[in-house]
Automatic annotation (TrEMBL):
The keyword Iron applies. Belongs to the iron/ascorbate-dependent oxidoreductase family. It holds the Pfam family 2OG-FeII_Oxy. Residues 188-289 form the Fe2OG dioxygenase domain. Keywords: Dioxygenase, Iron, Metal-binding, Oxidoreductase. GO terms for biological process: defense response to oomycetes. This is Fe2OG dioxygenase domain-containing protein.
Length: 343
């Protein structure tokens, strides 16, 4: 059987049945608002204390923020987007070679989210790569387009530096030592998803990615500069659109930072919607604890006499649980509450 890649078939006029969500689970795009207060953080600001306080507030209230003046050249961001798009435009035979729906494969081109587990598919293809240590994975990365390895490896190196710098600021914003989170997570892995959302004939009936939280520690997302699609769930159940800003990254906290912060910081629900007029790309970089890292709430953040909100577990245990499920179930972290909390 061939793959179910969307990017290898002609543009469709009707949404195939296997992508149609039940009526109770549709994006209701008319109800989505744009919030002009989405935190925007200028990393070049000379007032470091203020930047840390702003990050803390963003993590507590929104669980995500955008950063500008982050030190990564705009030209590299453009090249990353362009080579990603070139990849999805390759001839079908080229892409089939990389296709796999086995989540444990470290380099694979796939579609939807977890085609083996899900009942309704998502309007997305994605290329997933492990990126750290680069020397280990680079030989297996796609060799076509020709410039892929060079551009994407430079991008990955820069994004890693930015991510680690942000983890330092997030630690400080929690009142922890600057290197607390980095130490707690061990030698972090880095994974990347180059997401391609084709034009969709009926965007009201399906998702690019349904509501989910990211299972890792920190996500650095580069959005298509000209097409919106990312939406975040605010308290009270309102979906807000996070519209792209030129040269900005969207940063969101994953489940591991919610656990480490003992629930003070949130790994928020987000989703990607598709549209009828244009295809859309995004590049998500995930910093992930090393698989043997033991994750538990930082002792300094658990009040004396209280039980920690979450129990200790290894990231390996968490990651396997995450991929054994469908995306839009209950928050995966709910399955890791400490026994005292469950009583
Ligand atoms: C993801 C994700 C959002 C987007 O890849 O985990 O949330 O806008 N992507 O593509
Ligand atoms: Ni996500």
């Amino acid at each position: 059987m061939g793959s179910q890649l969307l990017s290898t078939v002609e543009r469709r006029e009707v949404l195939p049945v296997s992508y149609i969500r039940p009526e109770s689970d549709r994006p209701r795009l008319a109800e989505v608002t744009t919030d002009s207060n989405v935190p925007l953080i200028d990393l070049a600001s000379p007032d470091k204390q203020r930047v840390i306080a702003e990050i803390g507030l963003a993590c507590r209230t929104y669980g995500f923020f955008q950063v500008i003046n982050h030190g990564i050249e705009g030209e590299l961001l453009e090249k990353m987007m362009a080579v990603g798009l070139q990849f999805f435009r390759l001839p079908p035979e080229e892409k089939e070679k990389l296709y796999s729906d086995e989540p444990s494969k470290k380099i694979r081109l796939s579609t939807s989210f977890n085609v083996r587990k899900e009942t309704v598919h998502n309007w997305r293809d994605y290329l997933r790569l492990h990126c750290h240590p680069l020397e280990e994975f680079l030989p297996e990365w796609p060799t076509n387009p020709e410039s892929f390895k060079e551009i994407v490896s430079e991008y990955c190196r820069e994004v890693r530096q930015l991510g680690l710098r942000l983890l330092g600021m997030i630690s400080l914003s929690l009142g922890l030592e600057e290197d607390y989170i980095e130490k707690a997570l061990g030698e972090q892995e880095q994974h990347m998803a180059v997401n391609y959302y084709p034009q969709c004939p009926e965007p009201e009936l399906t998702y690019g990615l349904p509501k989910h939280t990211d299972p890792n520690a920190l996500t650095v997302l580069l959005q298509d500069p000209s097409v919106a699609g990312l939406q975040v769930l605010k308290d009270g159940g309102r979906w807000i659109a996070v519209n792209p800003r030129p040269n900005a990254f969207v940063i969101n906290l994953g489940d591991q930072l919610q656990a480490l912060s003992n629930g003070a910081y949130k790994s928020v629900w987000h989703r990607a919607v598709v549209n009828a007029a244009q295809e859309r790309m995004s590049v998500a970089s995930f910093l992930c604890p090393c698989s043997s890292a033991v994750i538990s709430p930082a002792a300094g953040l658990v009040r004396d006499g209280d039980a920690p909100v979450y129990r200790s577990y290894t990231y390996d245990e968490y990651y396997n649980k995450f991929w054994s499920r469908n995306l839009d179930q209950e928050h995966c972290l709910e399955l890791f509450r400490s026994a005292q909390q469950l009583e």
